[in-house]
Amino acid sequence: MSEIDFGPLQVLIGTWKGDRGTDVAPEPDGKDETPFFETIEIEAVGDVTNAKKQTLVVVRYHQVVSRKSNNEVFHDEIGYWYWDADSETVAHSLTIPRAVCVLAGGTVKQNGDEVEFQVSAKDGDRDWGIVQSPFMRDNARTVEFRHNIKVSGDTLAYSETTVLDIYGKTFDHTDENTLQRS
Ligand code: HEM
What ligand 1 atom has the least distance to the C-alpha of 65? Predict the structure, then answer.
């Protein structure tokens, strides 16, 4: 495992903790803003070859997010990040326990010391899409997902927008936080 070159994914590996998070979530009559703390554990998986042609390097993660007000976990997410060096494409798959799965794709940029990941997905997109249960599709549909992560040394800052079709309106469900590698 140690000989594997994880490319830009290398900077993600580690245990990250941050307590400056903000979640903006939909409510029937408006929105809820919730300050949170969280841990994101990101581990090396290895490499895989697809159809004898494509080689991906892969890391996996588990994100556990808790409300500051009562310390209760209110978001749990697992997934993988993939890097295809040949096409210089990064991909990010995630599952949340509402029966929603996302496969987002995008790019990585190096800005001086900072590595920036930008991925997105859209419901119905042939390349980078969203799969959700019939109930979620009909009542709380994830229409679009955009995720930006910036890693500089032991600091990781992210901001993500999940566009929802819920309560008869389109709502930007947003999350952001800055974490440190421990
Ligand atoms: C740090 C990340 C996140 C946090 C803290 C978070 C938190 C929340 C909260 C508090 C609600 C409102 C729940 C309720 O009213 O019962 C919510 C709703 C929702 N979230 Fe997230 N969320 C996060 C990320 C995501 C992601 C990545 C997705 C999907 C790609 C997602 C999809 C949804 C959906 C579909 C709903 C609507 C369900 C509902 O309100 O009944 N969320 N989220």
Answer: 5
Please indicate whether residue 144, judged by its CB atom, sits closer than 6 Å to ligand 1: no
pTM score, whole prediction: 0.97
| Domain residue limits at 142 | 7-181
Tell me: the pLDDT tens digits for 43-97? 999 999 999 999 999 999 999 999 999 999 999 999 999 999 999 999 999 999 9
Does the Cβ of 68 fall within 6 Å of ligand 1? no
Q: Is 143 in the pocket of ligand 1 (CB under 6 A)?
A: no
Q: How far is CA 109 from CA 71, 116, 136, in A?
A: 35, 5, 34
Total number of domains in the chain? 1
